[in-house]
């Protein structure tokens, strides 16, 4: 069964039933809030949010536009976008990894036989920051991963100042990450993903 069919909160965006405008004409409105996996067609919107979020802080992006397209073509099921009235406001992009810890190769590779989900990037549009959307999106993403039978844990790397945020999301620090980007050093963090059968019985996935 495709992963998305078991997850009501990740169904693709659909138009609501037509409503009548004050003039009596029927009009269509998009859902106020929607979560769904991203597609390659979302790549430009993803990159625009990511570029604004990261360039001012670190001077570079975790993923460039061609890399975003790469992962959204290879493993769109490991991404999650939050849309408000059809507009992307926050997203996560992940891929699979098959080793205990992240290495430099994890920045660009997707390992289909892996059981660790490498979270490359989480970003929120500047208009929607300081509203708790990053934490909510991460919670939704982790719930989604628990419904994927192959996922055993989530891995990510972040700078020191982001460690408290991810700890509040349930991640634990594993120590310094082997991966470096320019002069930047990172802490590697992980979150266990519970077994598929347990979550199916208890969460409605």
UniProtKB/TrEMBL annotation:
<protein>
    <recommendedName>
        <fullName>Serotonin N-acetyltransferase</fullName>
        <ecNumber>2.3.1.87</ecNumber>
    </recommendedName>
</protein>
<comment type="pathway">
    <text>Aromatic compound metabolism; melatonin biosynthesis; melatonin from serotonin: step 1/2.</text>
</comment>
<keyword id="KW-0012">Acyltransferase</keyword>
<comment type="similarity">
    <text>Belongs to the acetyltransferase family. AANAT subfamily.</text>
</comment>
<dbReference type="GO" id="GO:0009416">
    <property type="term" value="P:response to light stimulus"/>
</dbReference>
<dbReference type="InterPro" id="IPR051635">
    <property type="entry name" value="SNAT-like"/>
</dbReference>
<keyword id="KW-0808">Transferase</keyword>
<dbReference type="InterPro" id="IPR016181">
    <property type="entry name" value="Acyl_CoA_acyltransferase"/>
</dbReference>
<dbReference type="GO" id="GO:0004059">
    <property type="term" value="F:aralkylamine N-acetyltransferase activity"/>
</dbReference>
<dbReference type="GO" id="GO:0007623">
    <property type="term" value="P:circadian rhythm"/>
</dbReference>
<keyword id="KW-0963">Cytoplasm</keyword>
<keyword id="KW-0471">Melatonin biosynthesis</keyword>
<keyword id="KW-0597">Phosphoprotein</keyword>
<feature type="domain" description="N-acetyltransferase">
    <location>
        <begin position="33"/>
        <end position="194"/>
    </location>
</feature>
<dbReference type="InterPro" id="IPR000182">
    <property type="entry name" value="GNAT_dom"/>
</dbReference>
<keyword id="KW-0090">Biological rhythms</keyword>
<dbReference type="GO" id="GO:0005737">
    <property type="term" value="C:cytoplasm"/>
</dbReference>
<dbReference type="GO" id="GO:0030187">
    <property type="term" value="P:melatonin biosynthetic process"/>
</dbReference>
<dbReference type="Pfam" id="PF00583">
    <property type="entry name" value="Acetyltransf_1"/>
</dbReference>
């Amino acid at each position: 069964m495709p992963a998305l069919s078991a997850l009501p909160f990740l169904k693709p965006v659909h138009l609501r039933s037509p409503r009548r405008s004050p003039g009596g004409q029927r009009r269509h409105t998009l859902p106020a809030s929607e979560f769904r996996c991203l597609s390659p067609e979302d790549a430009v919107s993803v990159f625009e949010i990511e570029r604004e979020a990261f360039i001012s802080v670190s001077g570079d992006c975790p993923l460039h536009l061609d890399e975003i397209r790469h992962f959204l073509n290879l493993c769109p099921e490991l991404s999650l976008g939050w849309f408000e009235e059809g507009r992307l406001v926050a997203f996560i992009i992940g891929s699979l990894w098959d080793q205990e810890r992240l290495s430099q190769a994890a920045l660009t590779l997707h390992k289909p036989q892996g059981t660790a989900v490498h979270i490359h990037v989480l970003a929120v549009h500047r208009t929607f920051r300081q509203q708790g959307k990053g934490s909510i999106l991460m919670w939704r993403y982790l719930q989604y991963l628990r419904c994927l039978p192959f996922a055993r844990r989530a891995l990510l790397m972040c700078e020191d100042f982001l460690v408290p945020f991810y700890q509040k999301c349930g991640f634990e620090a594993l120590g310094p990450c082997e991966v470096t980007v320019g002069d930047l050093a990172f802490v590697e963090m992980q979150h266990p993903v519970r077994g598929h059968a347990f979550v199916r019985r208890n969460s409605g996935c």
